[in-house]
Amino acid sequence: MQPGVDEMVHDHIFLGHDHERNTRRVLWVVVLTLAMMIGEIVAGLLFNSMALLADGFHMATHAGALTVAAVAYLLARRYAAERRFTFGTGKIGDLAGFASALVLGIVALGIAVESILRFVDPRPVAFTEATAIAVLGLGVNLLSAVLLGKDHHPHDHDTHDHDADEHPHDNNLRSAYVHVLADALTSVLAIAALLGGRFLGWTWLDPAMGLVGATVIAVWSWSLMRAASTVLLDVADPHVEAEIRDLVEGEKGAHIVDLHLWRVGPAGLAAIVSVVGDNADGVRRRLQPVHEIVHLTVEVTEGTLSPSAGRLL
User: Fold this and answer.
1) Which of 211, 232, 253 is the endpoint of a domain?
2) Closest C-alpha to 102, from 207, 23, 179
3) The CATH number of the domain where 115 resides is what?
4) Domain identity same for 195 and 106
5) Residue 248 in contact with residue 254, Cβ under 8 Å?
6) Which residues span the domain enclosing 142?
7) CA angle, corner 246, sides to 275 and 280, nearest 5?
8) Which of 214, 232, 250 delimits the end of a domain?
9) Are residues 215 and 242 in the same domain?
10) Do 61 and 117 have their domain in common?
11) Alpha helix locations (H) across the chain?
12) Is residue 1 part of a domain?
């Protein structure tokens, strides 16, 4: 029985399954980050500590990036049903993730420059007050990491797993998580440097830890930027592409003459498959196991195949 027109009409909403939950999580982290930022700036003014003031304004950049992530979730939901977005608003999160990666890279560069300057011109540090605030900041960062979830790692996109959770594909949430990790890392390194300076007199440890932190944050930034850019540039997933070809061309006489595959959001992939030697229903039936595909267009091309692979007569 052929499907009716009403059954064939569909929307193009490809937001992640946990979109609303992720929105609330990021908003809570924004609130925590803003509170900690204000606390560090106020403490820096009270204790006359440049270290606390610098870290407070450093947190301001992360608060801004996290706010961008939260706004991206809200905009993606608000405009999800608008037809002017041909394949939905699922990529808004990737755009926000790319912007956040740029901010993270700038932060890493700033930390590196400041660390080098402190090697050249060491400055007195209020060790006791700065250590207390750094410990408090670490606690806030760990709480934020728990809120954002344990499923996100800086290099999730370096591997492919068909059975993986959808979260690694949410570059917006991933960017928020990386910002929290960056803050936690700087807090840990700051505590180590402050304790070394206070009890061992190793004042050089502060800028040295700054350079270590800047290097690690820069690597995370590049990884996140690379992952988001592949989505924005519609880079195909070679693993899924190979699976599509195996399923379609495994049928005798069927051959793919054109294939387009790209991510439309955290929910999954879209594909346009042009085939010769089969019908659209047959192709759709064989591609049902490819659960990553959420929007499939099948084009049947007239013609016959020559003995040489893939050439139409």
Assistant:
1) 232
2) 179
3) 1.20.1510.10
4) yes
5) yes
6) 7-232
7) 30
8) 232
9) no
10) yes
11) 5-8, 19-47, 50-78, 92-120, 127-148, 171-200, 205-232, 238-249, 280-286
12) no
Q: For 262, left (φ over 0), alpha (ψ -120 to 50), or beta?
A: beta
| Whether residue 261 sits in one domain with residue 121 | no
Three-state DSSP state, 307:
coil
Q: What is the pLDDT of residues 275-286, one digit of tens each?
A: 888 788 888 888
Q: Give the pLDDT score at 278.
A: 79
DSSP state of 302: P
CB of 145 closer than 8 Å to CB of 181: yes
Q: What number is the average pLDDT over the span 122-129?
A: 73
> Angle 106-98-179 (CA atoms, 0-180°, nearest 5)?
60
Rounded Cα distance between 307 and 313, Å, is: 10
- Tallying the residues shown for the chain, one arrives at 313
| Burial (Cβ within 10 Å: 0-12, 13-18, ≥19) of residue 193 | buried
Structural domain includes residue 305: no
Task: Return the CATH number at 287.
Answer: 3.30.70.1350
**pLDDT surpassing 50 at residue 70:** yes
Q: What does the alpha-carbon distance between residue 258 and residue 274 come to, in Å, rounded to a whole number?
A: 5
Residue type, position 132, single letter: A
φ, ψ (nearest 5 deg) of residue 121? -130, 80
Number of domains into which the chain is organized: 2
CB of 180 closer than 8 Å to CB of 148: yes
Assigned domain for 93 exists:
yes
Identity at 173, one-letter amino acid code: L
Average pLDDT over every residue of 194-207: 81
Whether 56 and 44 have beta carbons less than 8 Å apart is answered as yes
